[in-house]
Amino acid sequence: MSDDLVPLRCPLCAGTLAAASSGERTLTCPTGHRYDAAKQGYFNLLTGRGTSFREDTAAMVQARASFLAAGHYEPLADALAQEALTGFPDRVPRLLDAGAGTGYYLDAVASALAGSRGQRPPALALDISRYAMRRAARLPRTRALVWDLWRPLPVADAGVDLLLNVFAPRNGKEFARVIAPGGLALVATPLPGHLAEATVPLGLLGIAAGKDESVAAAVGPEFEAVHTREIRSSLELSTDDAVRLATMGPAGHHHDDASTRSRLQTHPMPARVTAAFRLQVFRRR
């Protein structure tokens, strides 16, 4: 990994944050702030400051990784990749995944760009979970940083061209700062009816209506809406898949595998479950 990656900004002083000359496992800024990589390769920029938000646990991240690896949400990953290829037809964009989780969607987009352009884009993964960033740090040409998306992002002004935001907090003011003019933000949210058949069996929360308007308001006036598309697919889930689905999301903070399996005995899952997503494309003015 070289420092031709997404340019970073020190979260303490806003100075340039870059790999130290001694190697890639230390980030420093001109005023001397220093961040060392964990043994798994990610950087925790929240060290010493912490956050009031709960990170996804190791069990939640493992469940998500296994569920996504089975291809259940591959149509959404494909749609994100298609939008990236269409939006950047003749160059390789600098990529930020704000709320990257395991890096599944980032990898899908980066791999598609690499296959089409012959070069994998420089990428930055941000997520509040250490366990998620351990996985994202394995991706080529990618830095993985533990960070709270509600704070000013540790990214240089106009430092990225393409931002992914998949089921994650939307800090519109910071998105506008870090995306270069003309760049794109791809924002994915669940549609009403997403996993509706699994709501009772798995004790999931329903999806509120009006999400498209709330997303546009959250990203703010510095962006213009390009278009919106809906992605729907039918999932056949095994019992193990269903348990992973319950564990990998916010409900994973409250349920364990045993309680989920017990609930499924009294509330059986239907044969098929609907996955329904809204993908909104915004351009930085």
Polypeptide structure, described:
The chain is 31% helix and 25% strand. The chain has helices at 58-69, 74-87, 104-117, 130-136, 172-178, 199-202, 211-219, 239-248, 257-266; strands spanning 8-9, 16-19, 26-28, 34-36, 43-44, 95-98, 123-127, 142-146, 160-166, 179-190, 223-235, 273-284. The chain is of the alpha/beta class. It is globular. The two termini are 32 Å apart. It has nine helices and twelve strands. The longest helix is centred in the first third of the chain and has 14 residues, at 74-87. It has a single domain (42-284), classed as Rossmann fold (3-Layer(aba) Sandwich).
Short summary:
The chain has 285 residues and is of the alpha/beta class. The chain has a single domain, classed as 3-Layer(aba) Sandwich (Rossmann fold), CATH 3.40.50.
How are the SSEs placed, and which strands pair?
Blueprint: E1 8-9, E2 16-19, E3 26-28, E4 34-36, E5 43-44, H1 58-69, H2 74-87, E6 95-98, H3 104-117, E7 123-127, H4 130-136, E8 142-146, E9 160-166, H5 172-178, E10 179-190, H6 199-202, H7 211-219, E11 223-235, H8 239-248, H9 257-266, E12 273-284
Parallel strand pairs: 5-8, 6-7, 6-9, 7-8, 9-10
Antiparallel strand pairs: 1-2, 2-3, 3-4, 10-12, 11-12
